[in-house]
Structure to design on (633 residues):
């Protein structure tokens, strides 16, 4: 993880992941209906992993709180777009607070609002959380996730509580999701090479020396936290329009672990790492799922016992960390491979 | 009222045992071992599956199995990750935790397993007209015994001295002749023993064992070691105790609002961390990259 991260603008670093993403969406996403669904949810997860990359990758501080931002983003976008009669029904069943029923906006306006609301929550909580350091910071962000989950799960006045809110309008077009993901890549790339990104990595490398150079750790971390909170909110919003529902349980421990592990397995210091991590873990999961269901994978039929899929995914993850603790890409950005390799 | 106070103390004691197990491992290798939850779970499974044997035999067997799993974790995964970024180790321990959960699910099924472990410890008795549950008293007695034993081990024995030295400064401790591999194995072994004790107390109260049995208490104890002060074992035990007492009190005091007990607990944790970022027992601020 050390000494990595780009500082200078390089067109291949930026275009590489975008082109790979376009190719993946085109060839994999267009292959069949089931692959299309997987590609769509992978694109949402990728945006989420990008959000984590901005904060966790650059600052070196683990955040479990981004699940809360995705939860809030998903909630806002779902509540703003779900048909009024469904919310009305939810009112009859669950005592939903009345002013929440009528608002209705366009999906894309809803996505922007969900990113903004998540950014606002990140700003308010970040003022407190970013004062902390080290492990305390990680656990404190966990407290944020815990509070968000606890409140949304139990409070039926503000949302569907432990039930799912159905009828959230779908974004069926792969290319729109792809466009959102590409916009996220561009934003994250420019954050990473900006002064904020560079100073943040300086605080990651040496938390003693950075303040001595006049960097306010609190300030740079807070800015990054807000920006990455906004992107996580967008990812949550996108996911609600891919799944067609909003459910609190979707954004708790499992979601947090999966997205963090995608980041770490790919290599937390780069956008390329976020892309490789997200799609490697999604692909492994999918291939194993097909093996479990006794479907042929690339023409080869291998059957594995039911339930062993999750074990293998988690094991792969541990093995990758044992093999390369910096992740598959070792935190490097995308480069066109050269034929002649130095050392 | 008396029962509520006893419940609070017994829950606090239970959490301090779990926190101590986590704190021991954290002290020697800066690893937040999330898979501690799975040590508690395997101990609980072993207790339930050996319930037909005499209690003493079942207990010995449980401790052996749990220590074995703890050492297996250390040899197969953590030993290879020595010296990498603590954030990577934490994530690896999540991975290990998920692996073990799924393995338990394959071995024991997803549905809860249950059996009456030490049934004579359930029910209640009357003192001066107050009815008090036996399990809360037993928990307190057990916890105090184990904490005293741990206190003796850490304060008076050579192993304890090495553990404290390694917690304070691992590099210097090594230079002074502490054998790191042996010490880390010992810390894992001890955390296994503590996990078995926690499981015993938990199983007496709730004998429905699922693959996620140890998760809740481990997360809350993690919060505990952070507010107590991660650098010291005393801090870990104190922090765990506080979390247990606060949670139990909140459950009593909030009445119908008890579903929000976790929220209040987490908010309290944030407040404590803001006032004392290094934990309650910290001495000054220390920068650490995790």
């Amino acid at each position: 993880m050390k000494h990595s991260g780009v500082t200078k603008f390089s067109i291949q670093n930026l275009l590489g992941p975008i082109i790979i993403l376009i190719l993946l969406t085109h060839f994999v996403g267009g292959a069949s209906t089931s692959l299309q669904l997987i590609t769509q949810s992978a694109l949402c997860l990728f945006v989420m992993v990008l959000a984590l990359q901005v904060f966790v990758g650059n600052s070196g501080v683990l955040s479990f709180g981004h699940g809360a931002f995705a939860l809030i983003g998903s909630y806002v976008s779902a509540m703003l777009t779900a048909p009024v009669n469904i919310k009305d029904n939810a009112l009859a069943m669950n005592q939903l607070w009345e002013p929440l029923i009528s608002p209705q906006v366009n999906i894309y306006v809803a996505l922007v609002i969900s990113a903004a609301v998540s950014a606002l929550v990140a700003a308010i909580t970040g003022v407190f959380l970013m004062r902390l350091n080290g492990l305390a910071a990680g656990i404190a962000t966990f407290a944020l996730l815990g509070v968000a989950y606890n409140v949304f799960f139990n409070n039926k006045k503000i949302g569907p509580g432990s039930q799912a809110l159905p009828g959230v309008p779908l974004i069926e077009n792969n290319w729109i999701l792809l466009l959102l993901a590409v916009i996220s890549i561009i934003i994250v790339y420019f954050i990473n090479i900006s002064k904020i990104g560079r100073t943040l990595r300086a605080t990651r490398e040496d938390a003693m020396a950075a303040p001595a150079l006049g960097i306010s750790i609190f300030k740079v971390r807070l800015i990054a936290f807000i920006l990455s909170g906004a992107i996580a909110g967008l990812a949550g919003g996108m996911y609600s329009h891919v799944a067609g529902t909003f459910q609190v349980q979707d954004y708790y421990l499992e979601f947090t672990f999966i997205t963090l592990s995608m980041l770490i397995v790919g290599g937390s210091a780069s956008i390329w790492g976020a892309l490789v991590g997200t799609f490697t873990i999604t692909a492994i999961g999918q291939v194993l799922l097909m093996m479990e269901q006794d479907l042929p994978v690339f023409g080869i039929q291998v059957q594995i016992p039911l339930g062993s899929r999750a074990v293998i995914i988690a094991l792969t993850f541990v093995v990758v960390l044992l093999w390369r603790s910096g992740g598959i890409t070792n935190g490097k950005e995308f480069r066109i491979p050269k034929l002649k390799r130095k050392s | 009222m008396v029962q509520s106070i006893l419940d609070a103390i017994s829950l606090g004691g239970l959490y301090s045992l779990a926190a101590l197990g986590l704190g021991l491992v954290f002290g020697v290798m800066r690893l937040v071992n999330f898979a501690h939850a799975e040590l508690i779970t395997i101990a609980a499974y072993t207790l339930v599956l050996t319930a037909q044997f005499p209690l003493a035999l079942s207990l010995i067997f449980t401790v052996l199995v749990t220590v074995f799993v703890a050492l297996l974790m250390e040899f197969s995964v953590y030993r290879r990750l020595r010296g990498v970024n603590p954030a990577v180790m934490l994530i690896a321990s999540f991975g290990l935790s998920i692996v073990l959960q799924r393995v338990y699910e394959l071995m024991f099924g997803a549905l809860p397993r249950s059996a009456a472990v030490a049934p004579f410890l359930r029910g209640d008795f009357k003192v001066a007209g107050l009815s008090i549950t036996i399990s809360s008293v037993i928990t307190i007695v057990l916890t105090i015994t184990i904490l005293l034993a741990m206190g003796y081990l850490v304060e008076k024995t050579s192993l304890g001295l090495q553990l404290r030295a390694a917690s304070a400064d691992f590099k210097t401790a090594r230079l002074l002749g502490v054998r790191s591999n042996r010490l880390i194995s010992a810390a894992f072994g001890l955390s296994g023993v503590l996990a078995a004790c926690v499981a015993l107390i938990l199983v007496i109260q709730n004998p429905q064992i699922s693959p996620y049995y140890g998760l809740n208490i481990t997360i809350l104890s993690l919060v505990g070691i952070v507010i107590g002060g991660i650098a010291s074992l005393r801090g870990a035990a104190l922090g765990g105790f506080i979390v247990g007492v606060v949670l139990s009190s909140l459950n009593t005091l909030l009445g119908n609002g008890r579903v929000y007990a976790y929220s209040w607990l987490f908010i309290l944790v944030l407040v404590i961390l803001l006032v004392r970022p290094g934990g309650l027992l910290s001495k000054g601020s220390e920068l650490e990259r995790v």
